[in-house]
Amino acid sequence: MGYERILLTLDGSQLAELALQQLAGVAKPGADIHILSVVEDQLEETSPLVSLMNAEFALSSTVHPPLRSIDMQPEIKVRMDYLEQVGKDLKDQGYRVAFEACGGKVVDTIANVAGEGFEVLVMATHGRTGLSKFVLGSVAEAVLHRAPCPVLLVPAHTAHTYQKEQPTPYGCILVALDGSLESEVVLPEVEKLLQTQPGKVVLLRVGPIVDLDGAARQMDAHVERASELPSDDYELLSNVTELQIRRYLDAIGKRLEPTACTTVVEVSFNKPTDEILFFAKHYGADLIAMATHGRTGFNRLLHGSVTENVLHHAPCPILVVRTPDRPLARFAPEN
C-alpha cells in the first residue's frame, strides 16, 4: 500500500538527497510527491515561486505574504531549476509531482505545509550550512516536534550506506515499543509500509517500565518492593513478567503476519536508547520505527530526548510518529 501523499524537503545538497533514496520504501506506486525547498527569509515574509509538473493534485494552500527581500529571488530561482530536474526524474519513475521553492521561516514553513493533508514528511537531518539550515539536525528535530504527520528522518552519518540510483527498500524494520498505547501508534504506519514491500520486523520492547513492585505485592501482601522477595521468587517474578511481555509482542506479530515476511521478538529492561541502537545494528535494520511525544513525565521511549539520541547515532533512517491527543486502542487487543 504505502503512502499516497508525500512531502519531501530538499535544498540542493547531496546529503539532502538521501531523502530521495527512501521513496522506494514509503511511496505507493503513482503516489503524489510534493517537493518543498525553503530559503531562509530573515524578514519573516515569503513569496513562493511555484511550478507544477502536472495539475493532478493540489499544492499547499498556505497563503504567502508579499516578498520584501528581493535579494532572495535569485536563490529561489536556483532552487526552482534544481527542483524541476528532480521532479522530472521522479515523474519518469511513475510518480505525480509538484514542487515549490519559497522564502520563509524554515521550521514554520515545513511544519505548516506538512499539516495540509500529507501522510508523511521525508527529510534528511544534516546538509549544507547557510541558506540550507532546514536540513541541519537541530532544525529537523524542531520540525519533528511540530509536524502533525509521521516524519521519516535520514541521518547524514548514514550516507555511506546508500548509493545514488539504488533505492533502499526496508528489508528489516526495527519497531521500538514500551508497552504503552501511545507507543503503539507507530504500528499502523509500519503495517502500511509492509504492504508496499514485505520484510522482517523486529519488535523490541524496551525500558524498565514494568511494575515489578506491584506484581510482588500481589504475590506476597507482606512485601512492599520486589527486591524484598526471596531470590527464587524474584527470579520467578521477572521470568513471568518477561513472558507476559513476549505474549504481548507475539500478539502484535500475529497482527502483522499478513504483511511481514517474519517477525522477531526482543525484550530489554535496559536504557531505551542504548538497546534500540544495539538491536538495530545487531539485526542490520534498514529502518527504525518509534513513537514520540516530547513531553516530560511520560514513558521513557516517548521522550523527545530518546528520539533525538537515537537519531544522532542510528545506523539507518528513522520513522517517527507523534502520539495524538485522543483516546487510543490496542493495535492487537487481547482475546
Question: How would you describe what is shown here?
Answer:
By secondary structure, this protein is α/β, with parallel strands linked by helices. The protein folds into 2 domains: 3-161, 3-Layer(aba) Sandwich (Rossmann fold); 172-322, 3-Layer(aba) Sandwich (Rossmann fold). 32% of the residues lie in helices and 21% in strands. α3 packs parallel to α4 (137-146) and α8 (272-282) packs parallel to α9. The longest helix is centred in the last third of the chain and has 26 residues, at 231-256. Mean pLDDT is 78; it is low at 62-70 and 127-136.
Please describe the structure with a list of short key phrases separated by commas or semicolons.
single chain; 21% strand; 11 strands; 9 helices; 2 domains; 335 residues; alpha/beta; Rossmann fold; eleven-stranded mixed sheet
